[in-house]
Amino acid sequence: MKTILLTCLTLFVFFTPGLAQQTKEDRAAAARIDRVIEQQMNENKIPGVSLAVLWNGKIVLLKSYGLANVEHQVPVKPATVFQSGSIGKQFTAAAVMILVQENKLLLDDRVSKYFPDAPASWKDITVWNLLTHTSGLGDYPADIDLRRDYTEDEYLASFKKAPLDFAPGTSWNYSNVGYVTLGILIRKVTGKYYGDFLKERIFEPLGMTTARIISEADIVPNRAAGYRLVHGELKNQEWVSPSTNSTADGSLYLSILDLAKWDAALYTDKLLTQASREKIWTAARLSDGSTKDYGFGWHLADLHGRRAVFHGGAWQGFKSFIVRFLDTKLTIIFLANSWETRDFKLARALTATFYPAFALPDVKTIADTEPQTTALVRRALMQVVMGKGDHKEVAQSLNAFSLPAAIIHSSEVIERKSENNLRVNRFLLTDIGRSAMCTVKLTADDKIASIEIAELR
């Protein structure tokens, strides 16, 4: 793919808020954004990107780049529908908060109230724990096959058998299982499938006309295809079962126009009251009094003097990202149809076009010629982050830098060399506001000798 990836432009609007015409500064900012996206598309062979920049809930920039479908040469346009990945969690959280507002459930309710046959280990898990990833539930158990269909009862049976990673409320671990469970809980409370509840109570009231649950069987106009790279060659997304693509942890189709309407609604009380929004964007407090920078389906951060809430999504050849600066009312959203998209890096580079303090560090990355080594390192780092591996100091470093575990999946190679009979691998970890260099030393038989994390300024 050549320059066809770059600027297949379908709609372009940019203006300074409050002014009726485009200024010289506006054009310069738009040009910077073009360069950022085109660079990332070229470097990572991303077929297509849909972008929106909003101020105070109003679109100030809407652009489409590249191809929604490579085989049929279909360009991306504002109505193109992408898969949400985990930004779908914020809609599940909003659905729960609607039920809280209507006094149909409480955040302090124990999950066992809705699932009477829950195991004893779940007795202290609350709705709040599920929303904040503090339940102790981890990711999908090993016995779940993503290519097999399951009923909600079958999912729950598998979840109940798995041991907790920690006592509820004592620690934090990103949990897709927790959000799948929330979706099942929504049915318990309302009698409706969570996707139908989202449609009736969120999508239709906001005019999010193309937002819906993923379905390969249905005819979905303007549906983008998802892609991945295999040995540098573009391939279609891998297949999963219909039930895997129907759970509440991030199984939505959304267009950039849908997400623009969602952003606008978050400035109003139309769906969520101010009190509900404040709870959604409040850091989770653990039982020892410490806090984790995560609310209900949103990461939270104070970055370079600016209060931000954000979340990324990654699933089936798609990446997505939304970052909202609460104090300045700036929102940046993008949807991309490649697993290779460096989502945090792209979000940060786009943010830097408005706020220079977010500029990426001047660190050169190199092509990854040893993907198996990279995969080994990523698995090791994820084990450390989840408290299941050695090198506890690494987990402390990651926490100190407030680097979300999600950035491990998009780490980039800086250097590989041999030193004192060890293989030295250096990786760049890029967060929305900070970066770190991770140095991993491996023995000849692929054992990890040491891991070090150093912040890059």
Determine the mean pLDDT.
91
Q: Tell me, what's the shape?
A: globular
Topology order in helix (H) and strand (E) letters: HEEEEHHHHHEEEEHHEEEEEEHHHEEEE
Radius of gyration computed on alpha carbons: 22 Å
| Total beta strand runs | 18
Query: With helices defined by DSSP (H or I, 4 residues minimum), what is the helix count?
Result: 11
Largest sheet entry: 7 strands, antiparallel
Q: How much strand? A: 15-25%
Structural class given helices, strands, pairing?
alpha+beta
Write a structural description.
This protein has 11 helices and 18 strands. It has 457 residues and is of the alpha+beta class. The model is unreliable at 1-12 (pLDDT under 50). Helix 2 (89-101) packs parallel to helix 5 (176-190) and helix 2 (89-101) packs across helix 6. The strands form 5 sheets. It has a 7-stranded antiparallel beta sheet, with helices on both faces. The protein has helices at residues 24-44, 89-101, 127-132, 152-161, 176-190, 194-206, 256-265, 274-280, 343-352, 371-385, 392-401; strands at 48-55, 58-69, 74-75, 81-83, 212-213, 227-230, 233-236, 252-255, 284-285, 291-292, 299-303, 306-315, 318-325, 330-336, 412-419, 422-430, 435-442, 448-456.
What's this entry about, in short?
By secondary structure, the chain is an alpha+beta fold.
